[in-house]
Design a protein that fits this description.
By secondary structure, the protein is α/β, with parallel strands linked by helices. It has three domains: 5-74, Winged helix-like DNA-binding domain superfamily/Winged helix DNA-binding domain (Arc Repressor Mutant, subunit A); 80-193 and 375-391, ATPase, nucleotide binding domain (Nucleotidyltransferase, domain 5, 2-Layer Sandwich), CATH 3.30.420.40; 206-369, Nucleotidyltransferase, domain 5. The chain is 44% helix and 21% strand. The protein has helices spanning 5-23, 28-35, 39-51, 117-135, 171-179, 190-201, 261-264, 266-275, 284-296, 300-324, 334-351, 357-362, 374-391; strands at 55-61, 69-74, 80-86, 90-96, 102-109, 140-146, 150-152, 157-161, 166-169, 185-188, 209-215, 219-225, 228-229, 328-332, 364-367. The strands form four sheets. The chain has a five-stranded mixed beta sheet, with helices on both faces. The protein has a five-stranded mixed beta sheet with strand order 13-12-11-14-15. Strands 7-8-9 form a three-stranded antiparallel beta sheet, with helices on one face. α8 runs antiparallel to α10. The longest helix has 25 residues, at 300-324. GO terms for molecular function: kinase activity. Keywords: Kinase, Transferase. This is Sugar kinase of the NBD/HSP70 family, may contain an N-terminal HTH domain. It comes from Glycomyces sambucus. Belongs to the ROK (NagC/XylR) family.
């Protein structure tokens, strides 16, 4: 789809605001240099953001002979964005100011039996009630929600959540009715929200071609080009975990055989450890922690498991490198956090045997070290983007 002048202006607006959030206080001149935009363009965008209540002037600095330069910062005392991370075992809700700093949070645990939309929404509503009671009169500008599975972002529908057996659930409508909030609600899945979080406040800020490999119970790749999340025609871009590396391999939960997820998703990792003689007991997180400890202790079954998984991960990641040719690959997800010390070095050692030389040399590999909840942060950033877009004033104001 061809970009309109408004699309371009909004992309520039996001770029300016991302740098401002990361480096405040700063000036229009520095923002122009960091974003490769003209000072005039940045000045116009900043004027719009000030009028929208998103940015404020916080002082002046000496310009080296000319008039003092105004210093800018996000309006941290203004409205808040809500980011909600919905997983199979918990709901975590975080409220962010316009600097994307957490100002409040609440968490609700969910039992394995709580799988209906009404039960999940009930936990979100309970967490929201806690946070709203502490926010006082601060306005909520938007709510972003990350749901497992496939999400139709246009209609706000959970198309398919396999662990809950959801099909075409009108989640946004149901949640909006329950919360009784007159603000927009934005839905997406963790793959997309983590990638947006990386763009706004992670290693992906300022990167032209970004790939985020997310290793968890499921496996996927978030893609972003030119600072914008790439969704594809049906919001299905990034289903890297369901690309095939061995047609004769084990069956994946998607129904196909030999998918990358069937080798490097959490259930597959623990299955292989069990087959090699390990002790994959307890919950997934408990078992993964036990595997990491066994590897640290040098237990042969654990070492062999890590090496085997690293080989599969390298083969799958090489396919992505060869196809997309990214500048940066970020490894993320709870499996990366739990097993990364063992898995990542082995993966990096094996990657050169599978990837072409040029894309391998061009790509920087990083492991996410953020301690904050990147799913909730990305969901809130989606709501922030939606807030700026919904106001329909950025770039529309006539200038004399």
């Amino acid at each position: 789809m061809k970009s309109t002048s408004r699309d371009i202006r909004l992309r520039n607006c996001f770029a300016v605001l991302r740098h401002l959030i990361a480096d405040a206080p700063t000036s229009r001149q520095i923002l122009a240099r960091e974003t490769d935009l003209s000072v005039a363009t940045v000045s116009n965008l900043v004027t719009d953001l000030i009028e929208l209540g998103v940015v404020v002037e916080v002082g002046r600095e000496d310009s080296g002979g000319g008039r003092p330069r105004a210093l800018l910062a996000p309006h941290a005392g203004g409205g808040v964005m809500i980011g909600v991370d919905v997983a199979e075992t918990y709901v975590q809700l975080e409220a962010y100011d316009l600097a994307l700093t957490v100002v409040d949070r609440a968490e609700e645990r969910m039992e394995a039996s709580e799988t209906s939309p009404d039960q999940v929404i009930g936990h979100i509503a309970a967490a929201m009630d806690q946070v709203r009671g502490r926010l006082g009169d601060r306005a909520i500008l938007g709510v972003g929600v990350s749901l497992p599975g496939q999400v139709d972002v246009t209609w706000g529908v959970s198309g398919f959540a396999p662990n809950w057996d959801w099909h075409d659930v009108p989640f946004r409508r149901l949640l909006t009715e329950r919360l009784r909030l007159d603000v927009p609600v934005y839905l997406d899945n963790p793959l997309k929200t983590i990638t947006v979080g990386e763009l706004w406040f992670g290693d992906g800020r300022g990167v032209d071609r970004l790939a985020v490999l997310i290793l968890g119970t499921g496996v996927g790749a978030g893609l972003a080009f030119g600072g914008q999340l790439y969704r594809g025609a049906t919001n299905s871009a990034g289903e890297w975990g369901h690309t095939t590396i061995d047609p004769a391999g084990p069956q994946c939960r998607c129904g196909a055989t030999g998918c990358i997820e069937a080798y490097v998703g959490a259930p597959a990792i623990l299955r292989q450890w069990d087959e090699f003689g390990g002790r994959a007991a307890g919950s997934q997180t408990e078992a993964m922690a036990a595997l990491a400890a066994a590897w640290e202790a040098g237990e042969p079954a654990a070492v062999r498991t890590v090496e085997t998984v690293a080989e599969s991960l390298a083969a799958g990641a090489a396919n992505l490198l060869n196809l997309v040719n990214p500048d940066l690959v970020v490894l993320d997800g709870w499996v990366t956090a739990a097993l990364g010390d063992a898995l990542v070095p082995e993966f990096e050692r094996r990657l050169a045997a599978h990837a072409l030389e040029a894309p391998l040399k061009a790509a920087r590999l990083k492991r996410n070290t953020q301690e904050r909840n990147m799913v909730a942060l990305g969901a809130a950033a989606l709501a922030l983007e939606g807030h700026l877009n919904r106001l329909n004033t950025v770039g529309s104001r006539s200038r004399r």
